[in-house]
Amino acid sequence: MKSAKSLLVKNGYVLTMNPRREIIRDGAVYIEGQKIVEVGKTEALKDRKAEVEIDARNMIVMPGLIDTHVHLAQALIRGCADDVALVDWLKNYVWVLQGNFTHDDGRVSAELCMAEMIKTGTTAFVECMIHTRYGFDGIAKAVEQAGIRGALSKIIMDSTGYADSPDIMYPGMVEDSDACLRETETMLARWHGKADGRIQVWYGLRSLGAVSEELFKDVGRRTRSHKTRLTMHLGEVPDDVRYVRQNHDMDLTEFAEKQGLLGPEMIFAHGIHFEESDFKRLAETRSNVSHCPASNTKLASGFAKIPRMLELGVPVSLGCDGGPSNNTYDMIREMRLAALIHKPIANDPLVISAEDVIEMATLGGAVAMGISDTVGSLEPGKHADLILVDMSDLGLTPNTNPVSNLVYAGSGHAVDTVIVNGRLLMRNRKLLTMDEAEVKKKALRHSKDLIERAGVDISPKWPVL
Predict the structure, then answer these.
(1) Is the peptide bond before 398 cis (omega within 30 degrees of 0)?
(2) For range 337-362, the mean pLDDT
(3) CA distance 294 to 249
(4) Cβ contact 94:324 at 8 Å
(5) Please, where are the H alpha helices in 250-387?
(6) Which residues lie closer than 8 Å to 290 by C-beta, 6 or more apart?
(7) β-pairing verdict for 266-270 and 288-291
(8) Contacts of 319 (CB under 8 A, 6+ apart)
(9) What is the rounded average pLDDT of the residues 30-45?
(10) 3-state DSSP call for residue 274?
(11) What is the pLDDT of residues 392-449, one digit of tens each?
(12) Angle (nearest 5°) at CA 37 between 35 and 40
């Protein structure tokens, strides 16, 4: 769909997320090309003439949501291993299925994931680990066509362990370190900064046990040399802590610092088992943590100490993780869980607020992606990445406090309109850059073929007649 030269969103409840966190009742956002030109009262912008005008009455207008921990390939295997312990979950289900992917499977899964993200209000994401077998080029082309903003991280590894469990990785998931590095360099040259700057290429380190010290250090150097970013799972399981203590007599972030992996260009996913010394080191180095509450609760990994991290100034964002560990890519549902789970742990209903998690899902994500100067808030001069959330649903009525109502009563199904770089990706719940029916049709076919090819039994536990 061709982008409008100018666009005016009016009569909305505008969450600007500007430095003063101003909310504008009966507000408007005027866009020209890819950028926001003016934000203010609808009355003040009444003389603005736009090619496309959108009436946002009864809607929240806010920055697009940013998911900083996504497995695109796992949309196709949604629900493949529910109510299963983590190592069993990896060894016998997730790795086996992903280890049988083709390039076509990789692209179809990415399209399914992005369609869901757009429909639930996500405008930017960090894909954490693209295996060569998923087909990096096809995924990047899918991002380009969908119109979403994405950081695509290529898997880097040189061993087959997982934390302190050696040689447990499924053969189809194993990659050669030199080949990983060569492919990443190629993709950086081919895709980094492409699609009007929407696509980034990152390094995606496998977790502890699958990467040697030498490779950790090499990737840290390469990241800075290419002026890109990197991400990895860290502190997701107690085994991470044991592995580093037994092999290096350090805490997790002390080990990461030794490898040159701390800094604002780093996102650590999960961080459940970080300790006080880790929090301070993360805060001092401005290293990012992606909080994934749904995945962490479902897999019983534990509860990240997010209130303490925020108190000390650790940059925190939100991630939905993947189809088998979360089962949805809905960031509004993720915000709700992030706002709820820390209250009973701390025995304090004030420990995390609705405002806190909205910040994590917008500005926090923009900081983690290194794009907070261009997205994450609705301000003149920033790129026009915004969403409209319809608050007129029965379950959202009465809407006395739209901010808390969005977090505690909302879901991605209330998202009406999505705009990225000034381009409409969805309007009135209809995808404009993707064929939703075709996406679902392909996903069903590829999922069935993949499960049969991998030989994984994911039937219900109860008898099916």
Answers:
(1) yes
(2) 98
(3) 31
(4) yes
(5) 252-258, 276-285, 293-298, 306-312, 331-346, 354-359, 365-369
(6) 68, 69, 126, 231, 267, 268, 269, 270, 271, 316, 317, 318, 319, 368
(7) parallel
(8) 67, 68, 69, 70, 126, 269, 290, 291, 292, 295, 334
(9) 98
(10) coil
(11) 999 999 999 999 999 999 999 999 999 999 999 999 999 999 999 999 999 999 999 9
(12) 130
Using alpha carbons, select from 268, 147, 137, 124 the residue that is nearest to residue 190: 137
List, in order, residues 6 or more apart from 439 with CB less than 8 Å away: 108, 111, 112, 115
Residue 375: pLDDT over 60: yes
Polymer length in residues for the chain = 465
Contact assessment for residue 20 and residue 65, using Cβ atoms and an 8 Å cutoff: no
Residue 9 clears pLDDT 60, i.e. is over it: yes
Contact call for residues 251 and 208 (beta carbons, < 8 A): no
pLDDT of residue 77: 98
pLDDT digits (tens, 9 = 90+) for 118-176: 999 999 999 999 999 999 999 999 999 999 999 999 999 999 999 888 999 999 999 99
Listed residue (372, 183, 214, 212) closest to 203, CA to CA: 183
What is the per-residue pLDDT across 129-141, written as a single tens digit (0 to 9) for each? 999 999 999 999 9
Q: Domains plus CATH for the chain?
A: 6-63+375-431 (2.30.40.10), 65-369 (3.20.20.140)
Instruction: Tell me the C-alpha distance between 218 and 20, whole Å.
Output: 41
Phi and psi torsions of 256, nearest 5°: -60, -40
Tokens encoding 316: 């925190």
β-pair type (386-390, 415-420)? antiparallel
Q: Quick one: tokens of 208?
A: 């502890």
pLDDT higher than 60, residue 190: yes
Q: Is the pTM of this model over 0.90?
A: yes
For the cut 70, the answer to whether the pLDDT of residue 32 exceeds it is: yes
CB 360 within 8 A of CB 98: no
Torsion of CA 190, 217, 165, 294, to 10 degrees: -60
- Rounded CA-CA distance 151/70 in Å is 10
Quick one: pLDDT at residue 164?
A: 84
What is the residue-averaged pLDDT of the chain?
97
* Residue 428, pLDDT score: 98
Element (H, E) at 189: helix 177-191
Strands 122-130, 23-32: pairing kind: unpaired
